Automatic annotation (TrEMBL):
Keyword Disulfide bond: no
All residue ranges annotated as the N-acetyltransferase domain in the record: 120-246
PROSITE patterns per the UniProt record, alphabetical: GNAT
Keyword annotations of the record: Transferase
Any one GO molecular-function label of the UniProt entry: acyltransferase activity, transferring groups other than amino-acyl groups
Pfam families: Acetyltransf_1
The name this protein goes by in its record: Predicted acetyltransferase
Lineage per the UniProt record: Bacteria, Bacillati, Chloroflexota, Anaerolineae, Anaerolineales
InterPro entries, A to Z: Acyl_CoA_acyltransferase, GNAT_dom
Presence of the UniProt keyword tRNA processing in the record: no
């Protein structure tokens, strides 16, 4: 059975997070949603992503025509589906002129979900000096935009070890019953010391205190199996396609 509620909660949370943090533009047409990243978001091959609960290519094309998208702009297509439908979805959209990239998953955990205390302080970012403190820890880019202070439903947490910001993550509470955990990152020199677990514990506690029934996340390739040890289970898949024809 498809867990469409999880897909809807993820899409709503994801779009709210990136709109808040990077000023992205959004659009919708029935069960299609679009996100245009713009110049403020770093390192995107395509500027537009479309999220669809519809898995029929013809229907997707018809609904996409109602989205306000720049002409001739290529986009990434995210099609949500049950795990057992993956191969069929791949064949269906490749036949319609898309190149299959990979399939990702939305994983969920029922709250409350307390975790052991790892003795690592975790703070909620509430002022500019904390944003600056986290960003100073990363030599390549600023992981926490200043705009994180502007939306009470998109909040950043960071863990401290050895006087440094050792790791951070976002908690998005836009969806009615589910919180979404995003952009989890631990600096390489601090990995293996429980930083991610401490961050998860703090965000689980915050989400549960606000009445959320589930915590959702989409694991990166590096953390594909990591969250399963805490009880996260796959709720729904989404296959990612790149446009190869206009």
């Amino acid at each position: 059975m498809r867990d469409d509620w999880a897909a809807r909660a993820f899409i709503q949370s994801y779009i709210d997070a990136y709109t808040t943090l990077y000023g992205c533009q959004t659009g919708s047409a029935d069960d299609l949603n679009s996100l245009q990243y713009g110049a403020n978001f770093p390192a995107k091959l395509e500027n537009i992503e479309i999220f669809s609960l519809e898995s029929n290519p013809d229907q997707v094309f018809q609904k996409k025509a109602r989205l306000s998208l720049p002409p001739r702009e290529h986009y990434v297509l995210n099609i949500f589906h049950a795990e057992e439908e993956t191969q069929e979805i791949e064949k269906r959209f490749e036949a319609a002129g898309f190149r299959y990239a990979f399939t990702n998953v939305v994983r969920g955990l029922q709250l409350p979900a307390p975790l052991p205390d790892r003795g690592i302080p975790v703070n909620l970012i509430v002022e500019q000096s904390q944003v600056d403190f986290v960003n100073f820890s990363h030599q390549y880019f600023q992981p926490i935009p200043d705009a994180v202070l502007s939306n009470p439903h998109v909040r950043a947490f960071y863990a401290i070890l050895d006087g440094q910001a050792a790791g951070w993550g976002l908690l998005v509470t836009t969806a009615p019953e589910a919180a979404y955990i995003s952009d989890m990152f631990t600096l390489p020199s601090f990995r293996g010391r429980g930083v991610a677990e401490a961050l998860l514990a703090a965000m689980h506690e915050t989400a549960a205190a606000e009445g959320k029934k589930y915590s959702l996340l989409v694991p990166s390739v590096m953390a594909w199996n990591y969250y399963q040890r805490f009880g996260y289970e796959t709720l729904i898949c989404f296959s990612i396609f790149h446009q190869v024809s206009s």
